[in-house]
Design goal:
Blueprint: E1 9-11, E2 16-23, E3 28-34, E4 39-43, E5 48-62, E6 65-70, E7 74-77, E8 83-98
Antiparallel strand pairs: 1-2, 2-3, 3-8, 4-8, 5-6, 5-7, 5-8
Length: 105
C-alpha cells in the first residue's frame, strides 16, 4: 500500500498557487508558488509555521518586523503571529504547519 497521496494545486489568486504536499493530523507540508507581485496578505493562525524559500526573493513581515529572504533561507513563525509576504522575484515557498491546516484540505 502506498503512503504517497497526490493533492491538486489550487489557484489562490492571480499571482499565487498552493499545493499540499503531505499531511497528517499533526503536520502539513504546503508549497506556495508566487509570481512577481504576488502577496500573502497579513494574517495569523494558531499553527506554528516553518518556511523554506526554495526559490525567488520575498519580503516578509512578522509582528511588524520586516526582512528580505531568498533561496535557501528558512525561518519559523510562532503561533498567532501576524505575518505576510510580498514576492519581489517569482519563486516558491515550502511551508510546514503544526498542527495540520484543515482549511487547506
Amino acid at each position: 500500500m502506498s503512503h504517497v497521496r497526490s493533492f491538486p494545486e489550487v489557484q489562490v489568486d492571480a499571482y499565487v498557487r498552493r499545493q499540499v504536499l503531505s499531511e497528517n493530523d499533526t503536520l502539513m507540508v504546503v508549497a506556495f508558488t508566487f509570481e512577481e507581485q504576488g502577496e500573502g496578505a497579513l494574517h495569523a493562525h494558531p499553527h506554528v509555521q516553518s518556511t523554506y524559500v526554495e526559490s525567488g526573493v520575498f519580503t516578509f513581515s512578522i509582528d511588524g518586523e520586516t526582512f528580505d529572504v531568498s533561496a535557501g533561507d528558512s525561518f519559523v513563525i510562532p503561533a498567532n503571529a501576524v505575518h505576510g509576504c510580498k514576492c519581489q522575484k517569482a519563486g516558491r515557498l515550502v511551508d510546514t504547519f503544526t498542527p495540520r491546516r484543515d482549511d487547506f484540505l
